[in-house]
Amino acid sequence: MFTRKPSLRAAVLLACTTGMAVAQSVGDQTRDRETASLDEVVIVAPYGTALGRERIPAMIQSAGAEQIERSQALDLTDFLNRSFASVNINHAQNNPLQPDFNFRGFTASPLLGLPQGLAVYQNGVRVNEPFGDTVNWDLVALSAVNSVQLLAGANPVFGLNTLGGALSVQMKNGFTYEGTAAEVYGGSFDRRGASVQSGGNNGRWGYYANVDYFEEAGWRDFSDSDALRFYGALSRRADRSAFDLSVAHVDSELRGNGASPAELLVIDRAQVFTHPDLTENSLTQIILEGAFDVSERVRLAGNAYFRDIDTDSFNGDGTIFEECEFDDDEFLVEEDFEDLNGDDECSSDDDADIRLVLDPAGNPIEAEMDDEKLNAINNIGRRDQKSHGASLQLAFGSRLGGNRRNDLTLGTAFNDGETSFNSLVEVARLLDNRATSRTGIFADEFRTNVDSDLRTWSLYFVDTLDVTDTVSVTLAGRYDNTRIRLTDRSGQTPELNGNHKFDRFNPAVGVTVRMSPAAVLYMSVSQSARAPTPVELACASEDAPCNLPNAFLADPPLDEVVANSIEVGANGTLAGGLRWHVGAFHTTNDDDILFQTTGGAQANVGFFDNVGDTRRAGFELGLAQRIDRVRWFFEYSFVQATFEDAFNVNSPNHPVFEEDPAAPQIVGDGKLLVPEGADIPGIPRHQLNAGIDFAVNGRFTIGADASYRSGVYLRGDEVNLLSRTRPFTVVNLRGEFRISDAVQLFARVENLFDEDYETFGLLGEPDEVFPGFEDPRFYGAGPPLGAWIGLRARF
Are the C-beta atoms of residues 765 and 318 closer than 8 Å to each other? Predict the structure, then answer.
């Protein structure tokens, strides 16, 4: 295991060199597509194609750089959680840069083991990682974001994983950002941050460079993290063409020590269960974008990209092994032995099939080392993911029948993602501070060395026709051909070797009716899909559960997940500039995939399984307005996420087995029957965001925002027998004072009333570490009261 430390000096030098190389006489010419208002255009295809919002049959939420800066959010997910409807994040890892991001009950998370259901694009490139469709939010510097758009629904045009929606992030370039700015801040949790950005153009050439640094000790024990991010872009503009070359490099070291037992939170919310839980990411990304106007009505656009992300992980945890006595000596064995003599102890008198844990030399591993019990493990892993691809789009604008506007986009895309995955399980000792020791003794059977290759070819189209002056009809569709190859490089599990093929065409149709400038009605029916990821295909057997993200064995194939979505709603702008939106949605996932736990101190041992259909349905209401010196918004969402088919779930840590052994939900050893209609854990039914900003005068602005979330069921309680987490409201304040036109002082306070709240929960085994703990509930606690102050300068 090694540690990469980011070099701030190198990144600053690179940023300055990039900027100086292209900084010449700065002009103010930009292309129309870069200056168009976010309220007017919507990106309707993965790269570039945009239409007026009034012609889009879906709910769209968007924000620009000014709104993002005004929010003083920590990162992109923090901003979306505060500002967008139907969005919530949870603190499963308890690191601010590693949240689970949820929209309408669909997830985009950095954690393997969660069913991903959102597609995320950066500059037209899908950044869901190839091994598990995960999204590493720490790799995106918020200060370099020019705009963000969240398009709701199962829109097939955006490709695989767009079950609940597509998030499109556009980064800054020299034609969207001009000038130089620097920002520093610091405050609670020893959190400090700084960014420097510079951009400009001379009408033809443009440059942009951004260096962003973050570090904190964290509000919990042993939770220090840092991230250094560089983003740069070189742009060229001509009368009929535009080209952008962007480069990103990120080094991050994140400690997120996971959920804590309920009884530990009562003692001290800052304490952690076990540690360390370290993730180190290193990203290098290159994206080339181009567009050429073939004629006034025809545009050819495309991109090509390369991404290389290396992820090193080190997770100290309670042991997954048992002690077993053989001839007066104790050795480690796998947990699933059968206690034949009924003494609650493992010995050679028990099941003859007891499996000893062996080291790489084939020797049994003793249960003690230097008279200390080996009661912990270290999961040590490395993922090297390289992906590349390209897309090409041809957009036609025409008039049919003389005055019927028609916008047609045809596109094709190719994406290839190769992953090399290596992992080891080291037996260890739990120290007094609940850290794990290093022993150098590895369990050979849990060694993994797997390669995967995920390759997708795609063809897609979207056509919007104005059938009358007030009615537009949209037809869209996408065909994806996905091939996944798994290769075992360890020689231990050749059964893993195999090829998996998924082919599917997904259609969509929608209509908008422009009643007046104050009201636009829309409705759509759409379908999208996602293929099982390599990590899911490699860990899909109940008989061979995986210790995420480590041991994989040959497993039965999984079915593709298909989302069928219906949307209906209306939006518009009333007198006084009051913008409003109301809508309803209904999405059913066929053959949804769920990670089923079979044990582990934090329920991280298990397998992936198709569990039948699931449903997300609800409605949304949004209001926003700017009146003179006041800006305000209000967003409410009702999201009901349920299992639509009954199925048996593995939940060995559920207390019902001890409290009510005769409960009708119990269908086997560690198995429960989930009834049709049960709520999916982790998704709050009621979500509300509200915010206001008031310009006291030309120099001083104050603002506040509040978020309410209802309680959620815990993972492992899919049967809904336990109570939900408590509902909570978090209030944040912010302020800005302009010392001069170039210098601003800003401050923010989060969780103003210091509310104790939890956003997430699961069922685990706390007694593996705390022998006196009996409550199996673990919670992801939200951060306490915090305050920061900073200075921003523009030149």
Answer: yes
Contact 667, 673 (CB under 8 A): yes
Q: Which two tokens stand for residue 9?
A: 């000096």
d(CA 619, CA 582) in angstroms, rounded, equals 7
Give bridge partners of residue 637 from the DSSP assignment: 620, 687
**Residue from 605, 604, 607, 578 nearest 593 by CA:** 607
Residue type at position 735: G
Helix (H) or strand (E) run with residue 242 in it: strand 241-255
Q: What is the Cα–Cα distance from 11 to 240, expressed in whole angstroms?
A: 34
User: Do 194 and 204 form a contact (C-beta atoms < 8 A)?
Assistant: no
Please measure the distance between the N-terminal and C-terminal CA atoms of the chain and give it in whole angstroms.
43
Token readout for 579 is: 């913008």
Q: Tens digits of per-residue pLDDT, 683-725?
A: 999 999 999 999 999 899 999 999 999 999 999 999 999 999 9
Region 257-268: mean pLDDT is 94
* 749 DSSP 8-state letter: E
> Any residues with CB less than 8 A from the CB of 403 and at least 6 apart, and which?
none
Residue with tokens 């537009």: 472
Task: Give the separation between CA 315 and CA 256, rounded to whole angstroms.
Answer: 10
Q: Where are the beta strands (DSSP E) in 712-776?
A: 728-738, 743-750, 758-763
- State how far the Cα of 551 lies from the Cα of 528, in Å rounded to an integer: 31
Q: How far apart are CA 737 and CA 209, in angstroms?
A: 26
Residue 546 has pLDDT above 70, yes or no: no
Sort residue 401 into left (φ over 0), alpha (ψ -120 to 50) or beta. Answer: left
Residue type at 58 in one-letter notation: A
pLDDT band at 2 (very low <50, low <70, confident <90, very high): very low
Confidence of residue 535 (pLDDT cuts 50, 70, 90): confident
Q: What is the pTM of this model?
A: 0.91
C-beta of residue 393 within 8 angstroms of C-beta of residue 444: no
What number of CA atoms fall less than 13 Å from residue 621's CA on the CB side? 6
Q: What is the H or E stretch that residue 8 is in? A: helix 8-22
Q: What is the overall mean pLDDT for the chain?
A: 88
- pLDDT at 31 exceeding the cut of 70: no
pLDDT of 26: 30
Contact 763, 714 (CB under 8 A): yes
Residue with tokens 């010196």: 629
Q: Residue 346 has what pLDDT?
A: 74
Please give the average per-residue pLDDT across 449-476, as a whole number.
Answer: 94
Closest CA to 425 of 396, 405, 445: 445
HEC profile of 596-611: EEEECCCCCEEEEEEC
Whole-angstrom distance, CA of residue 567 vs CA of residue 524:
5
Query: pLDDT by residue (tens digit) across 652-693?
Result: 899 999 999 999 999 988 899 999 999 999 999 999 999 999
Is residue 325 a contact partner of residue 347, using CB atoms and an 8 Å limit? Answer: yes
Least confident of 313-322, 412-421, 441-450, 534-543: 534-543
Per-residue three-class SS string for 466-488: ECCCCEEEEEEEEEEEEEEEEEE
Using an 8 Å Cβ cutoff, are 488 and 446 in contact?
no
Separation CA 679–CA 642 (nearest Å): 4
